[in-house]
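call fold(seq) -> tokens
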Amino acid sequence: MDIVELIQPEGVIAKLRVTSKKQALQELAKRAAELTEQPERAIFEVLVERERLGTTGVGNGIAIPHGKLPGLDRLHGLFARLEKPVDFDAIDEQPVDLICLLLAPETAGADHLKALARVSRLLRDPAICEKLRGTDKSDAIYALLTESTTSHAA
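ret:
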């Protein structure tokens, strides 16, 4: 599962301006609704429900909110670089400024887990994260996410 299969150029938000975890999830749900043609409210509810199970703030300023939605035909991803870090109840209690949202069909099974593992592996690389934080251009962020696919192959 390559990042290029998950995230399209229009799924990158280079300067997301939010002040809270809830607002970040709302804005991401809004953008995901445009890309997936699914109801914004349904996406938001799936994300909030997943957060209730435990935070998707995985540490080092990174969050990977995710969920399964009926009606999706494939996995969809969005990537957002926040203008200012927000409290995300992360496991290391550090604020989050890089968010990769994953939405999967209800029937995704192992593909959903493979996508989560792929994104997690990519964002564990401190050099990649530093570069992502160092640019506020969507095309540059997309290039960083997708070029790293070859060097971090699953």
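The beta strands are 7-16, 57-59, 62-63, 66-69, 76-86, 96-105.
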